[in-house]
């Protein structure tokens, strides 16, 4: 049985998918209208799941892509994207920040108008697109749907601020700011007192210590007062803006920040 919507997404983005599916229900699109591997009963037991995915990409009325950091690292997601593009399928790309339009334009979907789920007008544009594609009858929201739109925007904003680790324990993050040891000391971030460096580094090494601010909070944060997460990777020189890493120990906590050490890390293009 064909579905109205096929949602292609990285496994780690299932929380964002849940928010989207909950909103779709308010406009009359139920779970049985959606093919999405995050929905428990979507894949039939005893059948080849790759064949099921391929068949549903072809049969769904629209293929919706959640283009996040992890999407571009997933072989299955890229295969689904390629299949929909090759089949000239009706697609609806959705950019998930911090992915930029420039990064999106490097995909086979270049030239296809994309929506940005982080934009304030996303829901209105999304409803208009679903209406034009024949998925819903009208983009008119009404009072009930206006409330759902507000709840959706609040939930998405919260989710986009969380950096989640994958099944292997790795995070993907962007480095949006950095401070040297001297800058940290001047701003009274007591980073220079970290035990990890105070007993092992000489003065020259201490002067070159650098801390990087991440573009969100790691998913293990439970303190509502913490608004910044920083990492310290020893004497490594991170030249890129994106890294994949395993988290080490908590090195220090201030009034509104927490600093972590980093174990294994990889720079990403």
Tell me what you see in this structure.
This protein is an alpha/beta fold. It folds into 2 domains: 5-160, Rossmann fold; 170-268, no CATH class. Helix content is 32%, strand content 25%. The chain has 9 helices and 12 strands. The chain has a 5-stranded parallel sheet, with helices on both faces. A 5-stranded mixed barrel has the order 7-8-10-12-11. The chain has a two-stranded parallel sheet with strand order 6-9. Helix 4 (101-104) links the parallel strand 4 (91-95) and strand 5 (115-116). Helix 1 (14-26) packs antiparallel against helix 6 (142-160). The longest helix is centred in the middle third of the chain and has 19 residues, at 142-160. The chain starts with a strand and ends with a strand. Mean pLDDT is 80; it is low at 40-48 and 190-207.
Which properties best describe this structure?
9 helices; alpha/beta; Rossmann fold; 2 domains; 5-stranded parallel sheet; 5-stranded mixed beta barrel; 269 residues; single chain; 12 strands
